[in-house]
Amino acid sequence: xxxxGAHHDHDHDHERTVAPMVDEITDFEVLEVALRELxxxxxxxxxxxxxxxTEFAEQIGPAPAAHLVARAWLDPEFKALAxxxxxxxxxxxxxxxxxxxxxxxxSDFTAFQILEDTPNLHNVIVCALCSCYPRPILGNxxxxxxxxxxxxxxxxxxxxxxxxxxxxxxxxxxxxxxDSNQKHRFMVMPMRPEGTEDWTEDQLAEIxxxxxxxxxxxxxxxxxxxxxTDTRPAVHPIPDxx
Length: 242
Prior knowledge:
Blueprint: H1 3-17, H2 27-42, H3 47-59, H4 63-74, H5 76-84, H6 86-92, H7 106-109, E1 111-116, E2 121-126, H8 135-138, H9 148-154, H10 158-164, E3 174-179, E4 184-189, H11 201-207, H12 210-214
Helix pairs in contact: 4-5, 4-11, 5-6
């Protein structure tokens, strides 16, 4: 093999094995960039305002919602406020749905409802159309919440999907699926578990996980993470579009 030939083969191998710097851009990402640039060009918001909101969205999480539920478990008056005026109750735990822009995001705050679980009723939220989610109080939605397998299947086979998360409910408990849309957002207020009678708000808030606020898990003493265990494969999977 000549020196030139060896050099040529080396280049060919290099080109074949180098991975792209970024994954393929989706149609939604292209649309987002185009819409963002158009809004900035038209003066709807500035690039600095967009960066401020993005940084705000990335740092929020479910801790305020957990404290809201924990406080409601301890204070009947606050619980009544949370169920009747959830946006006012949100402010009591440090979440103002009008911040940080000062004018809010209509699709996020115009209609927010807290759903109370009872011994005979279990609520679970989904957005069957896309991935609407109460971000100001729960933070960004988990990846599985946005997948077609969760969105499309939960409304058809809710008990099976909950079982795949490790949540098995008896037949005498009604499972109510609340479907978010452009203007409505939901959050679940799960029931207070037994064995927590003398706990403080901070102790209770630790066991109110993001998944229990969505409705795919129940608060349990000792469970303070959102790691999902005891899962099993889907019986009726819906494949993603290519």
